[in-house]
Automatic annotation (TrEMBL):
The gene is murC. It comes from Phaeodactylibacter luteus. InterPro entries: Mur-like_cat_sf, Mur_ligase_C, Mur_ligase_C_dom_sf, Mur_ligase_cen, Mur_ligase_N, MurCDEF_pg_biosynth, UDP-N-AcMur_Ala_ligase_MurC. This is UDP-N-acetylmuramate--L-alanine ligase. Its EC number is 6.3.2.8. Pfam families: Mur_ligase, Mur_ligase_C, Mur_ligase_M.
């Protein structure tokens, strides 16, 4: 596919975080960009303000003339009328991952994979490189607060991309540099079991690294990944690139960084949590590989503002703290809750959690229960179904029963603001990947006005 010949692009599901980055890419190239999404959101309104034509009805009458490329997401049902129209009439129809693979194929890609931490690490890597004078483009899985977008346009061959394991999307990429942050079981509705996920997912991805390239792999996973080409271990306390002596100083997570290039002592990271120190470790490794200087790395780590919905502070004062996070897997919940506990020892932690997908709730219920038990108070919302139909017996009441402790309750999304007001939490976390982000504004107002 010749990207230069594409004048008109149509996106089905344009409001998705990965889809919107591609839409912005084509829009900045000067193509006419149109799209459908189910509902209007802050992101779709922003896209419209940038000149992208968006509608919210599944109706072929909205399809413009002369569409050169149709991009869709697997979240769109097969019965979608517009999708069926394009498929039946011979239009070039491609999944989001295919298009990202085509764009990055002629570039030097840094592809960051893992069941957790992709968005933070992709964004931090991009920010580090650009702050250190290393120009690059980037397709991000979240809205970077430093860039105010999920697509960053550069002017060199280097591109940083989030490599998504869902639907084996990352197998469309052929990176110069790969990263594997974690390989915990997830998306078993796609893979069936964890061994299949490893063999047909992550191992296959690692083998797609171009000759002469390498994969940075979190040290715990190197042996399980097996012989897949050149691998370089990183992590906390282990690996060729590692962080040691982690502590909190002056409100920053502070650590010493060891690598084959030498030692950097007392690096300070703006993001909280040991998991983010580990994410920073591989971002620094990549920056060093591409020629970054220590002084620039030090400054960038302190100045990085983070990503929307990744341990994002929406209110922080003596009256209380409100943090919003995208965590939707037990490991992510443990990381977010653990970071809050380390930052605010002795404070009472209240968490509002919205489970995401019936299958994920069923498959990881014990892990969710254990992670949520680390909170002092649990407010559990109903399961966000996304692309799934309900499963018999799998609901939030069933999950609630498995959470140890007494301070736990079911709560509807509509009731959350009033319940939070009654509880007057010291530290509040909203956690989940569904539409729980709609609670951000009212909860932020409450904390600002209390």
């Amino acid at each position: 596919m010749d990207l230069n010949s594409i004048q008109t692009v149509y996106f089905i599901g344009v409001g998705g975080i990965g889809m919107s980055a591609l839409a912005r890419y084509f829009n900045q190239r000067g193509a006419r960009v149109y799209g459908y999404d189910k509902t209007a959101t802050e992101l779709t309104r922003t896209l419209a303000a940038e000149g992208i034509d968006i509608h919210y009805e599944d109706d072929i009458r909205f399809i413009p003339q002369g569409v050169d490329l149709v991009v869709y997401t697997p979240a769109v049902p097969a019965a979608h009328q517009e999708l069926q129209y394009f498929q039946a009439n011979g239009f070039p129809v491609k999944k989001r991952a295919e298009v990202l693979g085509i764009i990055s194929r002629g570039m030097k890609a840094i592809a960051i994979a893992g069941t957790h931490g992709k968005t933070t690490t992709t964004t931090l890597t991009t920010f580090l490189l650009r702050s250190c004078g290393i120009d690059c483009s980037a397709f991000l899985g979240g809205i970077a607060l430093d860039f105010e977008t999920n697509f960053v346009a550069g002017h060199t061959e280097w591109v940083v991309v989030e490599a998504d394991e869902y639907d084996r999307s990352f197998l469309h990429l052929s990176p110069e540099i790969a990263v594997i942050l974690s390989m915990d079981a997830d998306h078993l509705d796609i893979y069936g079991d964890r061994e299949t996920m490893l063999e047909t997912g992550f191992r296959a991805f690692a083998k797609r690294v171009k000759p002469g390239g390498a994969a940075y792999v979190q040290h715990r996973w190197v042996e399980e990944l097996g012989p897949v080409g050149k691998t370089i271990a990183f992590g906390l306390g282990h690996g060729a690139y590692r962080a040691e002596n982690i502590r909190v100083e002056e409100g920053f997570f502070t650590f010493d960084f060891y690598s084959p290039q030498g030692v950097m002592q007392g690096l300070q990271l703006s993001l909280p949590g040991r998991h983010n120190v580990e994410n920073a470790t591989v971002a620094i490794a990549i920056a060093l590989q591409l020629g970054a200087a220590e002084a620039d790395i030090r400054l960038a780590l302190r100045e990085f503002r983070g990503i929307r919905r990744r341990f994002e502070f929406l209110s922080r004062s003596e009256k209380g703290v409100y943090i919003d996070d995208y965590a939707h897997h037990p490991s992510e919940l443990q990381a977010a809750i653990g970071a809050a506990r380390e930052l605010y020892p002795g404070k009472r932690l209240t968490g509002v959690f919205q489970p995401h997908l019936f299958t994920r709730t069923r498959d990881f219920a014990p892990g969710f229960a254990e992670a949520l038990a680390a909170l002092d108070e649990v407010l559990l919302m109903e399961i966000y179904p996304a692309r799934e139909a309900p499963l018999p017996g799998i609901d939030s009441a069933w999950l609630l029963e498995q959470i140890p402790g007494q301070d736990k309750r079911l709560v509807s999304s509509e009731a959350v603001p009033e319940v939070v007001k009654q509880l007057q939490p010291e530290v509040l976390l909203t956690l989940g990947a569904g539409d729980i982000d709609l609670l951000r504004a009212p909860l932020k107002r409450y904390f600002e006005n209390r």
